[in-house]
Amino acid sequence: MHARHLRARLKGWGGVGAMAAACALALVFALALTCTGSAASQPAGARTTQALTTAGTARAADDCEAPEKQTLAPSRADGPTIAAIKARPGEKRKLIVGVDQNSYRWGYRDPNGGESGRLEGFDIDLVHRIAEDILGDPDAVQFKAIPTDQRIPAIQDGRVDLVVRTMTINCPRLQDVAFSAPYFRTGQQVLAPKSSPVEGYDETLAHRKVCTAKGSTAHAKLEEDRRSGDLPASTDISTTVPNQLDCLVRLQLGEVDAVVNDGALAASQAAQDPTVELKGEAFTTEYYGVAMKKDADDLVRRVNQILVDFRQDTATGWEASYTKWLSATMDDDPSASRPPTPEYLRRS
Hints:
Layout: H1 15-33, H2 44-53, H3 55-62, H4 80-86, E1 95-99, E2 102-103, E3 107-108, H5 122-135, E4 141-145, H6 151-156, E5 162-163, H7 171-174, E6 178-179, E7 184-186, E8 188-193, E9 209-213, H8 217-228, E10 236-241, H9 244-252, E11 258-262, H10 263-272, E12 276-279, E13 286-288, E14 291-292, H11 297-312, H12 318-325
Helix pairs in contact: 5-11
C-alpha cells in the first residue's frame, strides 16, 4: 500500500474548552437538523422490480474479496428510486442525506463561522454535487446529522436516501447496504498526545486504553487483531463512543491513552488540538464510499456517474475540494488519497 504522512499544521481550536463548545453547538444543530418522517416509500411494484435486479449484488457481497469493486457501472438514467425523490412535493423535493456535523474539514460547522450554521467540508461538497445533478439545485438537500453507529440503520429504515459520512466500504457492510465506487483512500492510524510513549500501532499500545467509535472499522480491526494476537492482549479497547470526535474529547480529558481512527479523520482531529499527533504510519488501506439502500440500483449507478464527473472536473471537482478542505491537514499532494480507477460489477 502507499503509506502517507499526514500532517496537522493548522492552529487548533484551543483544547478541551473549545471542543466542549463545539460539541455543544453540534448537539443544538442536531436537534435542528433531525426531522421527523423518512424518505418516500416506493410503490410495491417498484420494490419488486428492484428486488429482482439486486440478486447479483447480494451474491457479490457473499463472495466479497475486494469490496471497493462491488458496485454497479455508472449511468445517467433515472429509475424508480430517483423518480421517487423527484416526485416529492413542494419544499420536500430534496435529497435526504445522512452526514456528520463535527468532523473537521469533512462535515462540520465552524464555531467561528457566524450564525448561518451552514455545513462545510469535503463530504458536504460531494453532497451538493449529487443534489445538483439529480434535482438541478445544489442546495436541494435535507441534511440529517447521524452518529457513526447509526449510518446503516438510517439507510435501512428509510430515514435517508444516502449517507456521505467518511464511510468505509467493506464486506460486512455490503450485506446491509449498497456502496458507490470509492471517492477517497485512507487507512487506520493512531492518534495520541505528543508526549505519549505510544509510537504507533504496535507493542507500545500494551497496557494502554484505546478509544474507537462504535460501529467503526477501527473498532472491528482492534477486535480482530486482539483475537489473532497482532495487538497486545493487555490493550484495553473497551472504550467506544457514538461519534469519532468524542474520542478526541476523551483523549483530551485523559480518560484514554490513544485513539484509533481513519488517518484522514485523525489528521483533522490533530489540527483541532496541537497537543496531539499521529503516531506511526497507516496500517490498513480503506476506501470511502457513498452508501445507499441495497435495492437502489438506479441511485447507485447515478452516483457512480456523478463521481466520474467529480473526479474529472479539474475546476470545481475532487481536486479543488481536496485543496480547499484537506490539503492543510494532510499532504499537499492529493495523489495518495485518490482512489484507484473504479472497477464495476459485470451484470448479466
